[in-house]
Amino acid sequence: MTDPWVALEPGADPAERVRALRRAHETFTTVGTVPRPVRSVVAESWRRSARAGVGPDGTACVELTDGDLGAYRAEHPLARVMPLVRELMGTFAADGEHLLAVCDAHSRLLWVEGHPATRRRADGMNFVPGARWSETAVGTNAPGTAVAVDRPVQVFAAEHFIRQVQPWTCAAAPVHDPRTGRVLGAVDITGGDRLAHPHSLGFVQAVARAAEAQLALLGPTLSSGDTALLSALGRDEAELVLDGRRTRLSRRHSEIVLLLARHPEGLSGDALLCALYADESVTPVTLRAELARLRKLLGPGALASRPYRLMAAVESDVAVVERRLGAGALTAAAEAYTGPLLPGSQAPAIVRLRDRLADGLRTALIAHRDPDLLADWAHAPWGEDDVTVWRALAVVRPTAPVRARLAALETELTASTVRAPGRTCGATYLQRPPT
């Protein structure tokens, strides 16, 4: 099976593929449709680029220069692994007349190094330190798209959204903070058509993993702005990573931490009480007791009051899915969605958030009509009885097993309607994903 993340399959003619991609790019920028042979990851990126207002004749903007750039680079976490990146990529870049580049989490280039002649050519399109190469700024490109979808990406020639960049080929992989999992930036190799090979994609991914391992060995940098990581999708009890320590939270503490993470400005006791308890007879004393236990669990200084708030910034897997979904990075959003949010929780605010997140992603998948993404949802525990998704999957992938499963669900739906006329199958998943 062809790897959709690799730009050229074995035996493909690069010159012919470039011609086909240029025709496809012209079609998209003219009428908005994406014909073959454009890969799905590139097609989705083109659509995100267009929605962001990027034009095919645009150029990158340099945001940091001179002293500002130097100060920013010196303080960036990836500065600590640049010697390793140079050791692993420098000779390859110089000998192959390529460039190695490292960007931050905003796809702003921090370092661009390599063959002098190639650097001079790259200067003409502002592929230089301090320039922003995010998808929202310059459209489809390896470092920007790798950060947007949070996975290694290869972009070949006319797959680039901006015409000025189409003579180039690049591969990039995101680098994550080993403590929190958040994206710190990406490592990239940029050059000619020879980079359109599976090895270049594997190469940058290996460099990114080596950088993460090095960061883990070096240990955390002390900062009052350190971000904690909260994992709450697909699990009844969330896990919080704070100050390098992993803590499994009780269900009630999971709910509290998630709500406070979404409200860094803080919540009053009354607001928390309403968000957590459907039973109006629950008293503020009950909530204060839970908060006291949580404060003891998290340690001194982690939880403040009046209003109740977390003293560390918290990145949650819920926010990751929401952010990717909002950016139109549907594949990346689906990959990050590991199940319903705290599925056993009955807290009113959590139920609303759980339903909104699942329904939003599910609706986007149905509208997108990607058979692989629909199949992943349909075969997951939360989607196996979702008749609407199975109907959508049967349209784009009408195989015998899919049709058989849909027929069984349709029969069950009909039987449920007969047994309980006027009802919408109550707690079954035939109309909506489970929560």
TrEMBL record:
GO MF annotation list: DNA binding
Keyword DNA-binding: yes
Pfam families: GAF (PF01590)
Gene3D superfamilies: 3.30.450.40
Keyword DNA-binding included in the entry's annotation: yes
Listed InterPro entries: GAF, GAF-like_dom_sf, OmpR/PhoB-type_DNA-bd
Residue span(s) of domain OmpR/PhoB-type: 244-310
Domain of life: Bacteria
Keywords for the protein's UniProt record, in alphabetical order: DNA-binding
Protein name as catalogued: GAF domain-containing protein
Organism: Streptomyces broussonetiae
Lineage: Bacteria, Bacillati, Actinomycetota, Actinomycetes, Kitasatosporales
